[in-house]
Design goal:
two-stranded parallel ribbon, single chain, about 160 residues
Length: about 160
Amino acid sequence: MMRKWTFAVMVGMLGALSVPAQAADVAVLDWQKALLDTQVAQRSMNQFRNSTHGKQQEAESLGQSLQSMQERFQDGGQPTQAEQQEFQTKRQRFERLRREILEARQQAEQKFLEGAKPKLDQAVEQVIQRHDVQVLVAPQGVVHAEGDLPNLTGEVTEIINSLN
């Protein structure tokens, strides 16, 4: 879904390069920032942090332990069989936790984007109409502008917040 929207923004940017536009008709929108700055995004990130807090702490502790063991092994010669087994067990647990946290993050991001997409579309449409924007570009797509282009990112965030 977001890829289609990103593609549409890119097509709009190409159109801006090929068709001369008046400065008042062109504006900038960082849609990712607009979404991430919303109250619902902040709540979603907090929920994710809270739901993975225990796993995060365990992974950090295991990471520190593994690093300490590895340094000890390098400094002190050959580890014993028991130390090797302990290291292997901790490393496997660390990797499993890392994968679980990454999967949970991807699922949380996907859920957030699916819920936010309609509101983003609605907010973008409102600012396009309100400012009579003919070309809307991402900040990364602006190569040169004679003056500052109107940046509608904050306004889009405000509209999304008001839609909750």
